[in-house]
Amino acid sequence: MKIQLNQLILIFTLPVLLLGETADHLIFKQIALAPISSEMVVIHNPTYQDVSLSNYYLTDAINNSTSKFYYNLPSGVDFWSGTPLDFIARFPDVTISAGSDLVLGLHDDAFFYNYYEDMPDLSLIEDMLNAVDGQTTKPANPNFDILQNPEVLILFYWDGSSPTVKDVDYFLWGNNSFAVDKTTLPGYQADTPVENQVIMPGISDNKVYFRPSNNEYESVTSGGNGITGHDETSEDFMLAWNIVYNRNQITSISDILDGMFATGATIIIQGLVVEFADIRPSNGPQVITVEDSDGYRLSLTIWDWDVASSIIGPMIDPYNSSQYVIQASGVLDFYNGWQLEILTPNDILQYSVYHPEGEFVGEEVIDAKIEPAPFVIIPSLGERLDFTYSFPSNSRVVIRIFDLSGRFVTSLVDRYYEQSGTVLRQQDNSDWNGRDHLGQIVPPGTYFMNIETNNFSTGKTSMDSAPIVVGVKF
């Protein structure tokens, strides 16, 4: 049994914490290029509001040699290349619910089902609309490759009357031959120069581009051409995206345990790293134990390379609190139970990582500092508050929340740090959920987030405080 698409998107959605801003608009979540029947785009709504797609468009139709670009759509001319391998299409009047995904197959439903054995939410040929009524701007033949290498994919917004469009998300791979820069065009702000835009490398069959976080790493968040003012051409794709196996390549651990595969079979599995053991002193292997979302576990055995000194060493570091979901390709064997032999470190791909205690960035810090995100949260809607804090070396760090009268509400952090630095807490279960120490949602109003550090060597105490606002939905 292969894992279904919605399961792949939902399995271990523990996002990678990136040193960037959490997106406040629709974003690309997955992009598949090959084989042809696998071509798809997953669009995610990371916001707390439902988003109607009635004025949203998707395109890969950039032609620098003929000066045909999507942003010419308001003029009605030169807005797409006109070739059967390209498209510029408008979404039908559908809605992506808050926190949800929309799966778009880039051919027809039959092509999509042939690869994934389930159906997309929309298909390009059967459901998407032409960009302009009366003009065909999407492919009619499902047998053509749609996404090439190199290529660009752009999600954008146009209200039907404005002289300019708004970028929503932008993804570039292979090389920069299809990069976009609207800097000198009337009505547009500066984009990132083409030579400075980050390019994602190409991928082979049965792999996908996967964004494990809702953050846009290094994205400029103001003064841009994005729908919320971001410069969508500024994102560092190499840090924001992973290259992983497509979901129909993943084998269920339960099927392995049920004996549905013979020894010697090459298998790809996905799971959370839960244990590590080094049995080499007893002439055994190193063993990484992974667990899938249903609680099934499988041992990964390593005989010919050292895990701790490899690129995946941090995943098994006992002092690292981060939680890693991996994909591993190996040869199936049976010895006191089923196990998967991993031949090289490159046979393990990081799918996602979750930092329950925040992401630590080492740097020189003299005094304590607390910086909550500058927005109102409504805990009754499930909203949470991101925050970052900085501290000197060799310090106990305590972070508490108080109400306006100075009454204690809850404690968020109480731990010792040997090295000075900054911690970013921007993921669920590491940020603040708007509840007090008893687990109750706090009343609406203004509160204070307070940090106090005490240096064990010098006895120096440093403090900082910042207001935070809790709202309520009427």
Question: Could you please describe the fold and organization of this structure?
Answer:
41% of the residues are buried. This protein folds into three domains: 5-245, no CATH class; 251-354, Nucleic acid-binding proteins (OB fold (Dihydrolipoamide Acetyltransferase, E2P), Beta Barrel), CATH 2.40.50; 359-470, Sandwich (Immunoglobulin-like), CATH 2.60.40.2550. The chain has helices at 5-10, 109-116, 237-240, 253-257, and strands spanning 20-22, 27-32, 40-44, 51-52, 56-59, 88-90, 95-96, 101-105, 122-123, 129-130, 151-157, 166-173, 207-210, 215-217, 242-245, 266-278, 286-291, 297-302, 323-334, 338-341, 348-354, 359-362, 369-372, 387-391, 395-403, 408-417, 421-425, 445-455, 461-470. The protein is mostly beta strands.
What are the defining features of this structure?
Immunoglobulin-like; 6-stranded mixed sheet; mainly beta; OB fold (Dihydrolipoamide Acetyltransferase, E2P); 29 strands; 4 helices; disordered N terminus; 474 residues
Q: What would the average pLDDT be, to the nearest integer?
A: 91
Distance between the termini: 46 Å
Number of helix segments?
A: 4
Regions with little confidence, pLDDT below 50 for 5+ residues: 1-20
Q: Which word captures the global form?
A: globular
Helix content: under 10%
What is the domain total for the residues? Answer: 3
Number of strands: 29
Strand content: 35-45%
Structural category is: mainly beta
Widest beta sheet: strand line-up: 9-8-3-2-13-15
Describe the sheet with the most strands.
6 strands, mixed
Radius of gyration: 25 Å
